[in-house]
Design a protein that fits this description.
The complex is a heterodimer of chains A (197) and B (296). Chain A contains 6 helices and 12 strands. Chain A is of the alpha/beta class and 197 residues long. Chain A has a single domain, classed as Class I glutamine amidotransferase (GATase) domain (Rossmann fold). Chain A has a 7-stranded mixed beta sheet with strand order 2-1-3-4-12-11-10. In chain A, strands 5-6-9 form a 3-stranded mixed beta sheet. By secondary structure, chain B is α/β, with parallel strands linked by helices. Chain B has one domain: TIM Barrel, CATH 3.20.20. Chain B contains 13 helices and 9 strands. Chain B has an 8-stranded parallel beta sheet. In chain B, α2 packs parallel to α12, α7 crosses α9 and α12 runs antiparallel to α13. The chains are: A alpha/beta (197), B alpha/beta (296). β7 of chain A pairs antiparallel with β1 of chain B, so a sheet runs across the interface. Chain B: It catalyses: aldehydo-D-ribose 5-phosphate + D-glyceraldehyde 3-phosphate + L-glutamine = pyridoxal 5'-phosphate + L-glutamate + phosphate + 3 H2O + H(+). Chain B: Keywords: Lyase, Pyridoxal phosphate, Schiff base. Chain B: Homohexamer and homododecamer. In the presence of PdxT, forms a dodecamer of heterodimers.
């Protein structure tokens, strides 16, 4: 069984843990560099990206997270997690983990009163995914090698670049585990690939 | 043509789910808000005065001047919450119109209605409310609260009441979960709780919304204690900006909340913090000074 970690510094951790377990993989709560070494893939949950970044720095986890992605291990960021993964942020001079070749704009759908849920068609995953957007970011532009998996009202909201998956919304707030299963599939592929090397 | 749904339970409760494991800090201006954000706060509560100053000032405490909320909203990118008086429909609508992210229908302010709380389900903006026990928690959820917090005793820097309230709610939730369904209606009567909310708690094994600790958190160890007891996160009111070194206290409380069971780390982050806010022994408060008794 593959081991999928959830970065547990702050945010909707338990929802992802439940979804991983419901999808037939083993879950690990990742709070430190040692925990990170245990897992085959990592989910960066929804929460507040600014708070998570402070805690990543105080735990000296930034370089290990970047190395994790560089080794080809799958990472999946939802909302705040997407912000952590992007290599360019609108109105900011620097990015965070910067492993996804995309420009992301924070809070780009408005404040909390503008938060919404809607049905999305996601390439290769689902035609009718109930997606919950909370003070959500969106993906302004992507490099040529990044595949766009979903858009909403002309804005890119889900992408994949090789081993990196990111979305603007919160699959963890629904009982629909199809995206988690898709990500676990990526983790299984990456393990098989490394075995064959 | 859009099929976007705003203001649903999932969207309102989900916003609070994203705050879990984090610290929400009271601030009274843009400068304090920036300090809170830099320390790793997940949200700020914009106020005219922190609870300990409300206590000291006396008189009627009301919603803050909208200018303060605007200033704070312009200064930070994290969510901004604000307080409305219990039952004050218009203060809540004003805050909603301003676009603050969350409203605290709060006993820290002087209640506007001594009989009825807000019908929070009618609003697009989500609400957080205080509770001392499960009856109160379930009534607030029944009215549409999307997030709960313990009442504690605000502005005292004394954790004892928050501990009492969190333990009580969690013990009562455990009791409901293990109760026979035949017994649930009588329990609803005894608690003064809506039956359908208790039924949801029984079958989900937990409250349907997150429950943060609030009202008396003054040190990193206080924050970690509340997490240990099962809080989903922590509000710190006067504890940060009434301490000797707000930046350090804020950072330490954020770290303690995430790593609440890493006791060696708690040793390190509790060192050399300077003087915490001065506390108040609860028994020294007169009945009229107890904010936790406001709300019904």
């Amino acid at each position: 069984m593959v081991k999928v970690g959830v970065l547990a510094l702050q945010g909707a951790v338990i929802e992802h843990i439940r979804s991983i377990e419901a999808s037939g993989a083993e879950s690990v709560v990742v709070k430190s560099v040692n925990d990170l070494a245990e897992v085959d893939g990592l989910i960066l949950p929804g929460g507040e990206s600014t708070a998570m970044r402070k805690l990543i720095d105080r735990n000296r986890m930034l370089a290990p997270l970047q190395a994790f992605a560089a080794e080809g291990k799958p990472m999946f960021g939802t909302c705040a997690g997407l912000i952590l993964l992007a290599n360019k942020l609108v109105a900011y001079d620097s990015a965070h983990i910067a492993s996804l070749d995309a420009t992301v704009e924070r809070n780009s759908f408005g404040r909390q009163v503008d938060s919404f849920e809607t049905k999305l068609s996601i390439k290769g995953v689902a035609e009718d995914f109930q997606a919950v957007f909370i003070r959500a970011p969106h993906i302004v532009e992507v490099a040529a090698e990044v595949e766009i998996l979903a858009s909403h009202e002309g804005r890119i909201v889900m992408v994949r670049e090789d081993n990196i998956l990111g979305c603007s919304f919160h699959p963890e707030l629904t009982d629909d585990h199809r995206i988690t299963k898709y990500f676990i599939g990526m983790v299984e592929e990456s393990l098989a690939k490394h075995k064959n090397l | 043509m859009t099929n976007n749904l705003t203001g649903t339970d999932r969207v309102k409760r989900g916003m609070a789910e994203m705050q879990k494991g984090g610290v929400i800090m009271d601030v009274i201006n843009a400068e304090q808000a920036r300090i809170a954000e830099a320390a790793g706060a997940v949200a700020v509560m914009a106020l005219e005065r922190v609870p300990s100053d409300i206590r000291a000032a006396g008189g009627v405490a009301r919603m803050a001047d909208p200018r303060i909320m605007e200033e704070v909203m312009g200064a930070v990118t994290i969510p901004v919450m604000a307080k409305a008086r219990i039952g004050h429909i218009t203060e809540a609508r004003i805050l909603e119109a301003m676009g603050v992210d969350y409203i605290d229908e709060s006993e820290v302010l002087t209640p506007a209605d001594e009989e009825y709380h807000l019908r929070k389900s009618e609003f697009t903006i989500p609400f957080v409310c205080g509770c001392k026990d499960l009856g109160e928690a379930a009534r607030r959820i029944g009215e549409g609260a999307s997030m709960l917090r313990t009442k504690g005793e605000p502005g005292t820097g004394n954790i004892v009441e928050a501990v009492r309230h969190l333990r009580k709610v969690n013990a009562q939730v455990r009791k409901i979960v293990h109760m026979n369904e035949d017994e649930l209606m009588t329990e609803a009567k005894n608690l003064g709780a809506p039956y359908d909310i208790l039924l949801q708690i029984k079958y989900n094994g937990k409250l349907p919304v997150v429950n943060f600790a609030a009202g008396g958190v003054a040190t990193p160890a206080d924050a970690a204690l509340m997490m240990e007891l099962g809080a989903d996160g922590v509000f710190v009111g006067s504890g940060i900006f009434k301490s000797e070194n707000p930046e350090k206290f804020a950072r330490a409380i954020v770290q303690a909340t995430t790593h609440f069971q890493d006791y060696k780390l708690l040793v390190e982050i509790s060192k050399d913090l300077g003087i915490p806010m001065k506390g108040i022994e609860i028994s020294r408060l007169s009945a009229s000074e107890r904010m936790q008794d406001r709300g019904w």
